[in-house]
Amino acid sequence: MDAKTLGDFIAGRRRELGLTQAQLAARLHLTDKAVSRWERGVGLPDLATLEPLAAALEVSLAELMTARRQPQPLPEAEEAAARTLALARQSRSAGQRALWWACAASLGVFAAVAVFLVWVLAVNGPVAAASVASLLLGLGAWSVPLVQLARRRCTPAGCIFSLGLALAALAVQFADIFTQVREGDWSALMDTIGPLLAVVVFFCAVTLSLNLLAAVAGRRQA
């Protein structure tokens, strides 16, 4: 489907029915921003939205997918449109399962690392407490956007929460560095500052990338 052609068709049919963008969006349980994006040709309706959208516009599925009114019903066109939609849904379901498995594997690795870090804390005592707390907060910061991507429900609040956990992780780690400086433990600091900076850069890059992906996914849903 061409986004611009479909957008013009949706806008024209909506006006014929005397509906505002907000009224059409309410019928679909979406925001008027989503309808506006379709009509401007910026994006396409989600696969799950096509049939409800066709019903709301009082057109057939084939008419919606071809962006053209038919003078009379064409059973062959309807069957072809239904088959195309079914194949697209199957392909999307396979992609969603792959994404779920990838996110589940990532969260499993995070959980294993968290258990290992708790064990390290138990063995080494309070010396490792700051590093373990920082890493656990960091794992939480990564988990939030991964869960949002897997559920395909990405919200600004989730991104803000993830970034908040990331800032808390950095704050804990740098508070520990400040404590070492205050106590004059320069040898330990000099031994770890290089790897620590590399870890911080890597952590920030991954956190921002995951949240950017979540934000893009959330924008597509809007």
Low-pLDDT ranges: none
Order of helices and strands: HHHHHHHHH
Q: Which structural class matches the secondary elements?
A: mainly alpha
Helix percent band: over 70%
Number of domains: 2
Shape, please? elongated
State the end-to-end distance: 19 Å
What percent strand? under 5%
What is the average per-residue confidence, as pLDDT, rounded to a whole number? 77
Query: Radius of gyration, rounded?
Result: 25 Å
Structure summary, number of beta strands: 0
GO cellular component, one term: cytosol
Protein name: Helix-turn-helix domain-containing protein
Keywords: DNA-binding, Membrane, Transmembrane, Transmembrane helix
GO molecular function: DNA binding; DNA-binding transcription factor activity
Description:
- With 222 residues, the chain is mainly α.
- The protein folds into two domains: 3-73, 434 Repressor (Amino-terminal Domain) (Orthogonal Bundle); 98-221.
- It contains nine helices and no strands.
- α2 (21-28) crosses α3 (32-39), α7 (129-151) packs parallel to α9 and α8 packs antiparallel against α9 (186-221).
- The protein is elongated.
- The protein starts with a helix and ends with a helix.
- The model has no long low-confidence stretch (mean pLDDT 77).
- Pfam families: HTH_3.
- The chain crosses the membrane at residues 98-121, 127-147, 154-175, 195-217.
- Residues 10-64 form the HTH cro/C1-type domain.
